[in-house]
Design a protein that fits this description.
about 270 residues, about 30% helix, Rossmann fold, Dihydrodipicolinate Reductase, domain 2, eight-stranded mixed beta sheet, elongated, five-stranded mixed beta sheet, 8 helices, alpha/beta
Length: about 270
């Protein structure tokens, strides 16, 4: 799937624009020569405009997406908010014929089905990606391929100390994808003695998962596979939130040619 060339920049609105990811998206849109941020939405908006992160210009700002749709006439809405806010935004932009790119997590199967229905009714696209980091998507893809050929597997992930869940959602997605591709459990060493309980990590059908939480980490995922006489390591590190922007920009370009729901960046990358 590829985007069509356009003489005019793609007009984009960011929903959740005052959050950390929203600010990063606005900056990336402003840097891209084929895109132009034309509006911002955030519940915390207390002004009717905001300065772009690069200081180049001001764009309309509101707490309600409907207001910005009327003022800015965007071609795409990019959402990094909450599941409830994302669905509320979708019920405004999709019936209006404006495609949606969503990086919000926590959407249920029912939510996804509604997004697909709303998009198909108007013949527009929705891209929902749990992870926009190209390297993380490739890590999952490669781990799936390797899982079929190795008997043992361990997954190590590390995040900042304030992360509330362990293991990470990405780690669980990698583990599930590996097990689905393999079609059977991995072999797991069960020690005869365990002086300190839990040191082998959590287990999912023989795949051990270890979670680290400490300052200085953004996101780290490493898959280590082993079989007779060899090991294979696959690793991805997030250094800053900037890593998500190439994937977001790819989705903004390609959603214009989509119809209905596209779930996962791997579909846009031609990996599945």
């Amino acid at each position: 799937m590829s985007s069509l060339p356009s003489a005019e920049p793609i007009r984009a609105v960011v929903h959740g624009a005052l959050g950390r990811m929203g600010s990063e998206v606005l900056a990336a849109l402003a840097r891209a020569s084929d895109m132009r941020p034309v509006g911002a939405v955030d519940l915390r908006a207390n002004d009717d405009s905001m300065l772009l992160p690069d200081g180049s210009s001001r764009i309309p700002l509101a707490s309600d997406l409907g207001t910005i749709l009327e003022r800015s006439h965007p071609q795409v809405v990019v959402d990094f908010s909450t599941a409830a806010a994302c669905m509320a935004a979708a019920r405004q932009c999709l019936p209006a014929g404006v495609p949606l790119v969503a990086g919000t997590t926590g959407l249920s199967d029912r939510d996804l089905a509604e997004l697909d229905r709303l998009a198909r009714e108007r013949g527009v696209g929705v891209v929902v990606a749990p992870n926009f980091a190209l390297g993380a998507v490739l890590l999952l893809h490669l781990a799936k391929q390797a899982a079929r050929f190795f008997d043992y597997a361990e997954l190590i992930e590390a995040h900042h100390e304030a992360k509330i869940d362990a293991p990470s959602g990405t780690a669980l997605a990698i583990a599930r994808a590996m097990l689905e591709a393999r079609g059977r459990p991995f072999t797991r060493n069960e020690p005869e003695k365990e002086p300190l309980a839990g040191t082998r990590g959590g287990a999912m059908q023989g795949l051990s998962i270890h979670a680290m939480r400490m300052p200085g980490r953004q996101a780290h995922h490493e898959v280590v596979l082993g079989t007779a006489g060899q090991t294979l390591s696959l690793r991805h590190d997030v250094i800053s939130r900037e890593c998500y922007m190439p994937g977001v920009l790819m989705a903004v370009r390609q959603v214009l040619q989509c119809r209905g729901l596209v779930l996962g960046l791997d579909k846009l990358m031609g990996l599945s």
